[in-house]
């Protein structure tokens, strides 16, 4: 880890409904950044490789049942267990492109009817993203895209509620991206927004904490 004057990486999060294109666009962004010589990594939440992540994965594929509050806290724990590595990477100059983060955590649980403030509480103190790219798509359109994969939550009526909850979480770090356009067009737009953001972080913008 370099000294405090070394440029840090940016924490950039992609959010959106299931089938909004986050995973494809995140992967393309990382290849683009690496191609022009930036240090960048693709991360995703839930991170299903940890033991907490395996519990989450079993729940999502309906192999286990958990109380709504319990699964909410597991999703949050799954971010906390990655926090120190996340901060180390950022401080050493690596930009992290993260496919889902705390906003998914809050939006999906609040869509079940859990209290919004209760949902936000366990996320307090995690590194706040420098930029949130929200891939905006009507729930009906997302549902048409090759269908859902059959995991829990991949249902139109539920996704409509998730979209409303996401809406309540928007703040100044968010950029709303029209995700109904052709993939290449979205890709180009994301590249330019992300480059600007990485440069802003390099010139000394400090890492803040949720929920700022
Ligand atoms: P994935 O399809 O991106 O792997 O995410 C799996 C599902 O988990 C997706 O429907 C969104 C949901 N989710 C939560 O409910 N809470 C969270 O904190 C995260 C990261 C995802
Ligand atoms: Mg999924």
From TrEMBL:
Alphabetically ordered keywords of this record: ATP-binding, Kinase, Nucleotide biosynthesis, Nucleotide-binding, Transferase
GO cellular component: cytosol; mitochondrion; nucleus
Protein family membership: Belongs to the thymidylate kinase family.
GO molecular function annotation: ATP binding; dTMP kinase activity; nucleoside diphosphate kinase activity
One GO term (biological process): dTTP biosynthetic process
Organism: Linum trigynum
Lineage, highest ranks first: Eukaryota, Viridiplantae, Streptophyta, Embryophyta, Tracheophyta
Pathway: Pyrimidine metabolism; dTTP biosynthesis
UniProt protein name: Thymidylate kinase
